[in-house]
Structures are given as structure tokens and as C-alpha cells.
Amino acid sequence: MAVGLLGSAVNVSQAEEEVVIGVVQALSGPGSVLSPPVIQAAELAAEEVNAAGGILGKKLRLEFGDDGTDARIAERAWDSLINQKGADFIISMETAAGRDAGLTVALKSNTPVVYTSLAEGEVCHPVFYSNAEVPNQQTEPLVKHLSSKEGAKTWFLVGSDYLWPKKSFEFAKAAITAAGGEIVGEEYSPIGTTDWAPVVSKLRRAMPDAILLAIAGGADNVSFVKQKNASGSPAIVASLDIEEGVLTALGADGEGIYVPASYFSTIDTPENQKFIAALKAKFGDKFVTPTFFSAPTYDAVHQFALAATAAGGLESGSVLKALSEVSFTGARGEVKMTTDRHASLPIYLGKGRSDGTFDIVESFGSIDASQQCAEPPAFGVK
Questions:
Q1: What is the CA radius of gyration of the chain?
Q2: DSSP code of 90?
Q3: pLDDT (tens digit per residue) in 59-116
């Protein structure tokens, strides 16, 4: 009998009769605010897979690992899930730092991974896929919309000081230039910033038409937006990662914020209505509004089930190959991953309301990820 990181015991003979998916996310630390809808989405998907007969006739079991919003803890969580709890597959909904630390474990064990958080892209490993947004899928349609529909010509960029915002802004600046716009400011601040006065002062002097945010963390986004609004700046605000939870925390200050993403809880499609209804039926008064961090996790559980079924077994190379061949239509619409290890995604533009939900102001259809890998990685570690 093995004991995992969170203390649960796994009977080896029982594990042989099950397919185990390990889900790594922040159950503690600053990132933990994103986890409740992720857990519910994963549990719903597992229930649906099991109701349909499981995976290859075996019951699907989820094991959750806590990365503590810390790369060192993340590596231990992945190791526990794979080497103690017998995870056949890993779903990673965490920071890029946590993901990269965990991938060292998955590469050693040749364990297939689907990353379900929006990120900088260009992660090319033989065990890896991403089914969430990469920079071109968000920034290019956003810039086109605000330039043509809102007359945004001058832009001020504000991001957290690490790779994802900087990579996202590379794509944004190219799109702004192509639309005839101008960058009038670009600022980066450490994660955990609470006093945005120096940045707000600069943007007030620059007087931009639009502000594009790539700020990590709910608290950081809330403090920036509130301080920007208090300054009297009339600039349009667009964000790459404000979801329903942060929007709810902003209240009236969230009114009018634009966000491009592959999922919002207010998407008016039969698939999303079914998803919301199923979550409410399963969790009742504990239901948490799903987000564009949780819907990809729901999809990933189903994608692993489809890939293993198509592969006819759990052999890593076969499952990894099948992941590029299957598609799943869930709450976001049809999601299909490619040999380039990322995904073609339906992209929507949401506009924030003070009640914590988004109006869908435009649907851009399915957008391919830009080329991510110089050459498609092998299917599994050889």
C-alpha cells in the first residue's frame, strides 16, 4: 500500500483495475483562489467518463496534488502522483514554473501531460500537450476588435515581471502595430504588487486609449484596476486573465473590462448550458461558477479518455499520438490538439459586468495556435 502527498492510501491491486489521472493545481498559496472550479470540473468529467463505461472498461479515478503555488512543492506533488499514486496521466493547471518543475518528473516516467492554464506557449516536450490559450489566440483578436470597434489607437501595457506577460506582449505589440496603433507605455511589476501608484502615474501622463493587462494573480489585478479607476483615467481596460472570480471581487470596478478567452460561463450554447446544469446538479449549493481555467481541465479529462480508447491501451506513445488525432466538444466548443502540442480553440470576447459575469460581445470562431515547435516532438520519450 502506497501513501501519497495528501495522505491517501492506494491499494496496488485496486490501482491495476483503474485508470488514474493526477490533477495538479494550487490547493494552497496565492494560486489557490483558482482551484475550486477546477476541482469541480474535473470531478464532473470523471463522473461522466465512468457513467459511459470508464476507460477501456476500467474505472477512472482522480488524484489531486497541491503545488502550493511553489515550483519546489510542485515537483514533489508530481512525483507523488506518478510514483506513489500510480497516475497514468497528469493534468497540470498551475503556473509555468510549477509546470516546468513537474515536467522533469513526467519526462523521466514517460507520463502524458495536458496543461490547462493559459501560458506563454512554445513548450515542446515529447510527453506534453496544452489545451489552453497561447498569446496569439488572445491578443490578435482583442487588438483587432478594440482598434476597429472602440477606436483604440494608443496602448499602455502592464504586466507581471515574468515570461508569460512578456511573451504575450510581443504578440500584442505586433498586432497593435499592424492595426496602425502605437505603444505609449510598457511596465512590469513583481507578482504581489499592491501599490500601483508609480505605474498609474505614468499611464495618466501617457493618456492611452486602452490598457492591456497581463497581471498574474487575483489580488494584483484587483488592486491595479481599482487604483487605475480611482485615478480618473478613462482608458479602456483589457485583460488576458481576469476571470469570473476576480471580476466578482472587482464589483463595479470590473464593469467594461474586455477579456479574450476560450470560455466564459455565459457562453450561450447547448454544450455550455448542459455543462452548467450538470455542475449545478452534482454540486448543488456548493456549485462554483466555472472559468476559463476550469473548462480546459474538464476537457482534458475527456480528451485523455478518448485518446486511451483510440489507442486501445495506456501505452504512453500510443496515447500521446492519439491526443493529436481525437477532438472533444465540450463547454468551450470543439477543441482539437495538434502534433505541434497545442490546440485550436474557439475564442470569445467577454465584457465585464458588475455582477461578476461577462457579456459575450464577439465570437471569433476557432483560432489556431501560432507555430509552437520548430519540429513536432516525438510521441513519448524514446
A1: 20
A2: E
A3: 999 999 999 988 899 999 999 999 999 999 999 999 888 999 999 999 999 999 999 9
Specify the amino acid at residue 12: V
**Residue 343 CB coordination number (10 Å):** 29
Where b means 16+ CB within 10 Å and e means fewer, 65-98 reads: bbbbbbbebbbbbbbbbbebbbbbbbbbbbbbbb
Higher pLDDT, 70 or 184: 184
Q: Is the pLDDT of residue 217 over 80?
A: no
> Exposed/middle/buried for 134, CB within 10 Å: 0-12, 13-18, 19+?
buried
Residues 6+ apart with CB under 8 A from 276: 265, 290, 331
Query: Would the pLDDT of 5 be above 60?
Result: no
In DSSP notation, 166-214 reads HHHHHHHHHHHHHTT-EEEEEEEE-TT----HHHHHHHHHH--SEEEEE
* CB-CB contact of 126 with 155 (8 Å): no
**Other Cβ atoms closer than 10 A to 191:** 15
Are 345 and 121 spatial neighbours (Cβ–Cβ below 8 Å)? Answer: no
Report the Cα–Cα distance between both ends of the chain, in Å, rounded.
30
pTM for this entry: 0.90
Q: How confident is the model at residue 17 (pLDDT cuts 50, 70, 90)?
A: confident
Taking Cα atoms as reference points, which of 117, 192, 115, 137 lies closest to residue 160? 192
Q: What is the chain's mean pLDDT, rounded?
A: 93
Residue 30: DSSP 8-state: G
User: Residue ranges of the alpha helices (H) in the chain?
Assistant: 12-16, 35-51, 71-79, 96-109, 135-149, 163-178, 197-206, 218-230, 244-250, 270-283, 295-311, 316-323
Among candidate residues 196, 233, 194, 241, the one with its CA nearest the CA of residue 215: 241
The dihedral formed by the CA atoms of 293, 296, 298 and 304, expressed in degrees to the nearest 10: -140
User: What's the confidence (pLDDT) of residue 16?
Assistant: 65
- Strands 9-10 vs 2-3: parallel, antiparallel or unpaired: antiparallel
